[in-house]
Amino acid sequence: MKILLLSDPNSVHTIKWAKSLAQNDIDIIIFGLGNFVVKDYDGISNIQVKTLNETVTRNEGAFSKLKYLKALPTINQIIKDFKPDIVHAHYASSYGLLGALSGFYPFVLSVWGGDVFSFPHKSLLHKMILQYNLKKSDKILSTSHVMAKETKLYTNKDIEQFKPMEVKSLFEKDDIVIGTVKTLEEKYGIEYLIRAFKIVRDKYSDLPLKLLIVGAGSLEISLKNSTKELNITEETIFTGKVPFTDVPKYHNMISVSVSNSESFGVAIIEASSCAKPVVLSIVGGLPEVVEDGVSGFVGSLLTHLGIVGFGLFFVYLYLAIKKKFNIYSNLQINNLLSLYSLMIFSGIFLVACAGVFISWTPIWFLMGLVFPPFIIKNRKEYNI
User: Fold this and answer.
1) Number of domains in the chain
2) What is the pTM of this model?
């Protein structure tokens, strides 16, 4: 993912934002108007800083901000070359104006305080600039309720876009809709969601289960073909790309939201804000935004691998015992060392079975790590 931050690169807030995003493998370009003096970004390969080297003060008049317009060609060139997924402007007046005039979307605008508490009171023109910037944004962010309340005075937009609401649904009232709102690319694992839905649909064929996939991407045709192969096209709806402003509506159509992989978990936060339960994997930043068993359910790929390891070991145990014990010759033991090994691993097997009642993931993962190598090492001895 790529984000273009329009913000003062010297600000401690910008530094925290950029570093936090960079830690989640997001490529960042920070564009600033003033001189760049800090060294906080040194050594961080996925953060670039570009500046206009203008002298900037907070008490500038409305007309003085027009000089920022000469930054637009630079910003547009950065957008053309960098191809960001999001443009995020910090401070709704100066950088907000640049973001609004760039014409790029999705355009996210963060209010900082003085831009809504002081700036619009300087003159009618100041107020109009702020209103224009807020109007052009796709999403407005505020770090406090009081600042959000003040921002609402200058925009008709509902800052709390993601919330439970009645919407005209694509489904029947009683349908149970499993869905996801993601770009249809390989890293998001939509293919696994489709196959999992097939398994659940077949197991609970008496339930009105539906699948909603919101978004577009390079795998759209492939994923649609998968639903045909699995014979679930009648239960599945692909919306294609939808306007950002419509995303809350689709979240409210979903009964259970699913996410397999995200660097931060924005879609999961959006779904939770719409009071929807979520199911996710222990990947990236997803576990940080969900309390397992409270606001959602966290599954793990390691758990699945562990279950495979458990199953393989069980098969191995059966075949090895059958090989080493000749039940037709009074259970003669041909190899005491092998018997000892079997007893040890049988003990691990029993402990693991008891352990699942305490904690699933660590025990399954342990079996996934231990048992397959043991099987591979001994399979020739037992002709497995």
Assistant:
1) 3
2) 0.47
